[in-house]
Design goal:
The protein is α/β, with parallel strands linked by helices and 300 residues long. It has two domains: 205 residues, Spore Coat Polysaccharide Biosynthesis Protein SpsA, Chain A (Alpha-Beta Complex), CATH 3.90.550.10; 51 residues, no CATH class. Helix content is 41%, strand content 20%. It contains eleven helices and twelve strands. The strands form two sheets. Strands 1, 2, 3, 4, 5, 6, 7, 9, 11 and 12 form a ten-stranded mixed β-sheet that branches. A hairpin with a 5-residue loop joins β6 and β7. It is globular, with a radius of gyration of 19 Å.
């Protein structure tokens, strides 16, 4: 799928409307209270840019009246059911007009002027397609939001794996979840978290929208992977800082979350790894066993 902006740009020119610098696109799933906190910090912290806010609601309960009464300047898009992150993000992108798109989880909130800092960075680095902020946990500790692309070792040494929990500072886990010496340094990275990701709209012309085969999880890895394949850089920029409550929305349906995480692993594997029948069966069985194990844990 190739994303074109010509019709949006032509319409904007004809109407003589101001150029939007940043389009905030927030994908909500039954997280109204955290979302309201995020909206408050966007309005409080964001200065120096012209922006619009688009909320794409996957909750399945129409809140259009609520948004009209409380947030009349926000473009609210209601999905009658949960379409997943990728489809919802693409709906938001098709309805935005900004030079840059700032994707946000509803369970994030701003410490500083995130939109301006990331937009200024893209303004001065024309070869960067995606830039991610520093992300902190609720307690202020670092959230490992810039990582290496997954490899076969990632199956055993990812953020949620038993080996990582037992040996948190082992070499292989560190290579994946924290491959850089400092999270206070601007670095070119493989991928950044979709919980706070600014995308150059122009880059989407070549790269295309989010892959809708991913319902949730790995869609951020995939879009960064495609950016790099098309010659765009992906950068971690720690000057912009957000807080993020991990799993704030996904914890509402733990079983589905586990299943979709492992389904996304399989889709990503099929898309980017060298394959043959023996490897396919081995990987599929490994992902299935891992999924069953985590489903059992979620049920306990």
């Amino acid at each position: 799928m190739v994303f074109t902006l010509s019709s949006v740009e032509d319409a904007r020119t004809k109407m003589h409307t101001p150029i939007i610098d940043v389009s905030f696109i927030i994908i909500d799933y039954k997280a109204l209270l955290p979302l309201q906190k995020l909206l408050a910090t966007i309005h409080e912290k964001t200065t120096g840019v012209i922006y619009e806010i688009i909320v794409v609601d996957n909750s399945g309960d129409d809140k259009e009246v609520f948004f009209k009464e409380n947030y009349p300047d926000i473009k609210y898009i209601n999905n009658t059911r949960n379409l997943g992150f990728s489809k919802a993000a693409n709906i938001g992108i098709r309805n935005c007009t900004g030079r840059y798109i700032l994707l946000l989880n509803p369970d994030t909130w701003f410490k500083n002027n995130v939109a301006l800092l990331l937009a200024q960075f893209l303004d001065s680095h024309h070869d960067v397609g995606i830039v991610g902020s520093k992300i902190l946990n609720d307690d202020g500790s670092i959230q490992f939001s810039c990582r290496s692309f997954p490899s076969y070792k990632t199956a055993f040494f990812n953020r949620y794996s038993l080996l990582t929990k037992m040996f948190p500072k082992n070499k292989y886990s560190m290579e994946y979840i924290n491959p850089y010496n400092s999270h206070d340094k601007t670095s070119e990275v493989d991928w950044v978290s979709g919980s706070c990701m600014m995308i150059r709209t122009q880059a989407l012309k070549a790269v295309g929208l989010f892959d809708e085969d991913f319902f949730m999880y790995c869609e951020d890895v995939d879009i960064c992977h495609r950016m790099k394949l098309f010659g765009w850089k992906v950068v971690y920029h720690p000057d912009a800082v957000v807080y993020h409550t991990i799993g704030g929305s996904s914890q509402q349906n733990k079983i589905k979350t586990v299943i979709e995480r492992h389904r996304s692993m399989w889709i990503y594997y099929k898309k980017y790894f060298k394959r043959n029948k023996i490897i396919d069966v081995t990987v599929w069985l490994g992902i299935l066993c891992r999924c069953i194990f985590h489903v059992i844990i979620a049920l306990m």
